[in-house]
Amino acid sequence: MERFLQVQPVVLAHDMHPDYLSTAYARSRPEVAKVAVQHHHAHVVSAMAEHGIDGPAIGIAYDGTGYGPDGTSWGGEILVAAPRDFRRVATFRPLRLVGGDTAIRQPWRIALALVVDTYGEARPSETRALFHFVPEREFQAIDGLLRRGVEAPLARGVGRYFDAFGALFLERYSSTFEGQVALEWNQAADPLVAHTYPFDIYDDGEMYELDLRRSLRRALRDRAAGESTGTVAAAFHNTLVAATAALVRRVVRREGRHPIVASGGCFQNARLAEGVRAALAPELEVFLHESVPPGDGGIALGQAVIANANVRS
Prior knowledge:
alpha/beta, Nucleotidyltransferase, domain 5, 11 strands, about 45% helix, about 20% strand
């Protein structure tokens, strides 16, 4: 590409994740100026750049996985961001990924982690029956690790919650590509269902944390009462919309009325994206992607703008 376009880069932007091949490639290059960019900061700034927003902005960044400097996997984040830097002001309660990336390929593991986190030792007796599609030996192995509190990567991504609920209620053992279960869960949602599940927001004074454990309890009660999978899937989507709107309103009260943008792979889901915009209207406007992809296809734009701002400053 350098030969074809006859350009010679002087600044390289790359993802902050230390193990990405692209990061290793960037570090191996001879250019002196290299800027490591946090994944969700890049998502938010890509939406800001598309809409000509200089910042600061309130950015909703929802996807599956992104390197978090705190040692957890991010993906359910609200940031107050400018091109040069950002502050994280809200996130999701983390889920344990037993087996790391294997849990993403076998999302029933994430579903079981959510059940164990929700109920602890008081979990319902029919838990094993909920996972009847998982071989006994595998279930007992992962269940034992979770109950013993095994150390496992922590993931805050909204995509992981789609995986957890989708795998549990659609009875999916595995996925063959990123976002498969989330897509199926979206397609299952009944467009006529409008109700939501309860949720909790905790505030430590610096950051909000969204907790969906009460949502799972209610969803399982609905299933036991004979509600359809489509109803549960729709209520899950509606709950994410309502919870996101509640988080954003709290951030606005604390941080001020800045432009609001939404980015990340989860906003390829039209029900979620349009729902969040409608839930905050008319008093707050949410800028969604129009010409730049909300997923990782648009992330290089954010990386470039961020690198430019840092080098120039």
